[in-house]
Known about the structure:
Elements: E1 3-9, E2 22-28, E3 36-45, H1 49-53, E4 73-81, E5 91-95, E6 103-105, E7 110-111, H2 119-123, H3 128-140, E8 148-151, H4 157-168, E9 172-177, H5 180-189, E10 194-197, H6 204-211, E11 216-221, H7 225-232, E12 235-243, H8 247-250, H9 261-266, E13 270-273, H10 283-295, E14 303-307, H11 312-321, E15 327-331
Parallel strand pairs: 8-9, 8-11, 9-10, 11-12, 12-13, 14-15
Antiparallel strand pairs: 1-2, 3-4, 3-6, 3-15, 4-5, 5-7
This protein binds NADP nicotinamide-adenine-dinucleotide phosphate (NAP).
The site of NADP nicotinamide-adenine-dinucleotide phosphate (NAP) has 31 residues, from helix 3, helix 4, helix 8 and helix 11.
Amino acid sequence: MPINRRLLLASRPEGIPGAQNFRADTVEARAPQAGEVMLETVYLSIDPAMRSWMREGTGYQQGIPLGAVMRGGGIARVLESRAEGFAAGDFVQARLGWQTHPTLAARYLQKLDLSLGTTEDWIGPLGLSAVTAYFGLRDIGGLRPADRVLVSAAAGGVGQIALQIARIEGCRVTGIAGGPAKCAFVANDLRAHAVIDHKAQADLSAAIGRACVEGIDLYFDNVGGATLDAALAHLRAGARVVLCGRISEAAAAEPYGVRNLGKLAAAHGRMQGFLVFNYHARYEEARIWLAARLRDGSLTQRLHILEDLKQAPIGLGMLFRGENTGKLVVRVADASV
Ligand SMILES: NC(=O)c1ccc[n+]([C@@H]2O[C@H](COP(=O)([O-])OP(=O)(O)OC[C@H]3O[C@@H](n4cnc5c(N)ncnc54)[C@H](OP(=O)(O)O)[C@@H]3O)[C@@H](O)[C@H]2O)c1
């Protein structure tokens, strides 16, 4: 039996999570029972929401008990199957946990359709971050061609896809990102019409005003807090604000407290949050659309890859320090072996 290396939640985070919150152990991988599959994890997605799962009690998902394997989604290869429809060598997507060799019930697995893209595509531009961008913009944001769109954390996993979908649909897109290298990526690779380096601004609202001279029809917000406030000041009539995430507030002791809601009312705008998991029944629709844009070259995505399971806790902290460019993932095993 292979050895299953695992990372267990050891303590609840205060501030930015990191290696101090986890404990490593090893156990023998469990042989599959009827209806189960033994897997080898290939990629793990590292997501800001993980910090909220590490808290006690319930948020939008039950908190992870101390001592349990850290929750996390990713891509794995089937090593041994006792479930119909799965065979050794298949690739699946599932909530694998931070472990190298999980054994899971087949009903929790989705077999990858590799005609849509490679295993890397399935953790990247066909993965849940990309699907989040798709439904957030379309279903929540009511994206229309020629909208003036602003996207925060535009060089990140969700943001880079949101920005490109809006551009592909004929919108004028502005991205906000932290630092010159990320801004160059947003301008040159993602082909935004304008970019704002939030780290170089004494007054972010004024910078948004200069970059979005006609105002904003749709703000796709990955950041919350002061960035949301700054964007609200520039809404056009009938604007839509998509509350995708609030990473700037996630590790803070106190919520920020948005001040510019009057601007939303004055613009007779609409602000709405969402959870991608609620779109589960429609993931395929998003993936077919995204795969077609990957094939025709209009969509690109950068993966920020960390090597080995032990990097996962460090990676989680990187998201909150803005140290990732692109979708952050951990490669646990080689997909091609
Ligand atoms: N609604 C849903 O179902 C759903 C699903 C997935 C993700 N999300 C949310 O989407 C957002 C993006 O997630 P992701 O996985 O794609 O992460 P990401 O954008 O790849 O990484 C997070 C980025 O946020 C920015 N950031 C971090 N702290 C910040 C701060 N204090 N102020 C301003 N910017 C800050 C950094 O970019 P810069 O260096 O460019 O500032 C950082 O690189 C998160 O809020 C996440 O919770 C929501």
